Amino acid sequence: MLSNFKVVLVETSHPGNIGAVARAMKNMEMFELRLVAPKYFPHADATARASGADDVLRRAEVYTGLSEAIADCQLVLGASARDRTISWPTVVAREMAERWGGAAAADQNVALVFGRENSGLTNQELDLCHYLLRIPCNPDYSSLNLAAAVQVACYELYVASGRQHRSGVGDQGEEPLASAEQMEGFYEHLLQTMADIGFLHPERSRSIMRRLRRLFNRAQLDTKELDILRGILRFSQNHNAK
Ligand code: SAH
Asked: What range(s) does the tRNA/rRNA methyltransferase SpoU type domain occupy (predicted)?
């Protein structure tokens, strides 16, 4: 997935930025880079800044004009930091990724077009685009570095295509999660213990037990954590009995 997306850079003047773009793309598993009349390419600065993404640079295709670079694309999005006096239909990066980053749009070639470092894209170039792509940011300082802009767009696509890994919480995941039956055993044990130590009366416990269930369900206990909690309950009961 995402192989249908092409990153197109128009007349980039700093070759280091081209390398940084290649790196940003490869980080997000995107590999198709197209360069429209780059000032210097290939260049040692590009290779240096690509740091290991030289395969993306090697595969990069160079074009003389934007229309040639996007000729095989069904959808063209022009990234711009500036509000234009004539209004183009605009999408923000996340919306772009949600609309076109999934499997549903995978059969169309999509060009993400980025402009020059000093002057962005011309209105004539934006005329070739279906949408203007914006990265929301500080309205008083809205121009990102070229590679940073590519990074944000590709990151949003990566997330929307469902490839980001779930956040981890320490070593959770090594133990299987507790089953419903194990949780019921725990709740009975908890209720019994709370009654034994005089914390509550079992007949008047419904609302507190519901809240406690909600709390433990939120935590999604694994079997090891459940063992620890039951150990504490056993200990409290024994201690109380003495
Ligand atoms: N000074 C230029 C901006 C150059 S930044 C100008 O005034 O237009 C280089 C490129 O990065 C821009 O052409 C655009 O494609 C992209 N870019 C930078 N910031 C962006 C933003 N906030 N939203 C969308 N694209 C952005």
From this structure: 5-155
Q: How far apart (Å, rounded) are the C-alpha atoms in residues 57 and 59?
A: 5
- CATH classification number, 2-160, choose in 3.40.190.120, 3.40.50.11270, 3.30.70.20, 3.40.1280.10: 3.40.1280.10
CA 209 to chain centre: 38
Bigger pLDDT: 65 vs 1: 65
Q: Is 82 in the pocket of ligand 1 (CB under 6 A)?
A: yes
Global pTM? Answer: 0.75
CA of 241 to the centre of ligand 1 (A): 71
Protein fold of 180-241: Helicase, Ruva Protein; domain 3 (1.10.8)
Q: Which of 83, 134, 143 to mutate to test the pocket of ligand 1 (most atoms within 8 A of CB)?
A: 143
Q: What is the pLDDT of residues 98-131, one digit of tens each?
A: 999 988 788 999 999 999 999 999 999 999 999 9
pLDDT digits (tens, 9 = 90+) for 31-74: 999 999 999 999 999 999 999 999 999 999 999 999 999 999 99
Are 132 and 90 spatial neighbours (Cβ–Cβ below 8 Å)?
A: yes
